[in-house]
Amino acid sequence: MHIQRLQWAGTLIRTKNVTLAIDPMYGSYSSFFGQPKEPFYPLTEFGSVDVVAVTHMHSDHFDPEAIKEAWGDEVQVFVPYEGVSRAEAAGLKKVKGMAFGEVAQIEDMKITAVYSADGLGDPQVAWLIEAEGKRLIHCGDTLWHGQWWNIAREYGNVDVAFLPVNGAVIEASNGQPICMSPEQGVAAASILGVSALVPIHYGSFHHPPTYMQTPDVLSRLHTSASQIEVTVRVLQHKEGFSL
């Protein structure tokens, strides 16, 4: 199995038989986020995929135009079931909505929608991926929540967790973060029993006052991880590794 970071929250997972892209985006972000602070690459540069999974329908996670340009309008796309009509209206033709606990099997890859909590109250899932004897989880831009223990009990320890860590605050959130902080990301990784925490959803956007990243993300992440012995694996855009 090979893992590659796309950009922002995007992740590519390749097994012998299946390639899955989670939250791939390129140009869908709006002026709300400002211009990205690091390079973004067209999805065409990452090769072909068999399946796209979208954690939720915010523009920094769901980029239908980039998906269609890179992989066509008939690529299989999984979304939270409340997002089906939006994905279809965007011109995607093979859309499957999934609710918490639902499972899809693609060749040797099992994809399960598990609990996630969106900071703005919009429908969101996390994707639990099982293939080639490995278990991974991608949590979009979830808040901290009380279901980490239940996920760990039901599905077992996770090899790699892709977790948001930028603790973003927006004007409408009254000073409250709309996704996990570095410290919360490490705590979630510890509960899930991960072998490696790959931070996502940080670095690319900081656009006061509309969208503000918490300070010192990576240094705080490493400090917190060292205190409870969680392994952090930082990937730059396009960087990857094999399990």
Automatic annotation (TrEMBL):
Superkingdom of the organism of origin: Bacteria
Leader sequence segment: none
Enzymatic reactions: 3',5'-cyclic UMP + H2O = UMP + H(+); 3',5'-cyclic CMP + H2O = CMP + H(+)
Domain (Metallo-beta-lactamase) ranges: 22-202
UniProt xrefs under SUPFAM superfamilies: Metallo-hydrolase/oxidoreductase
InterPro entries for this protein: Metallo-B-lactamas (IPR001279), RibonucZ/Hydroxyglut_hydro (IPR036866), UPF0173_UPF0282_UlaG_hydrolase (IPR050114)
Function: Counteracts the endogenous Pycsar antiviral defense system. Phosphodiesterase that enables metal-dependent hydrolysis of host cyclic nucleotide Pycsar defense signals such as cCMP and cUMP.
PANTHER family per the UniProt record, alphabetical: UPF0173 METAL-DEPENDENT HYDROLASE MJ1163, UPF0173 METAL-DEPENDENT HYDROLASE MJ1163-RELATED
Identification of the protein by name: Metallo-beta-lactamase domain-containing protein
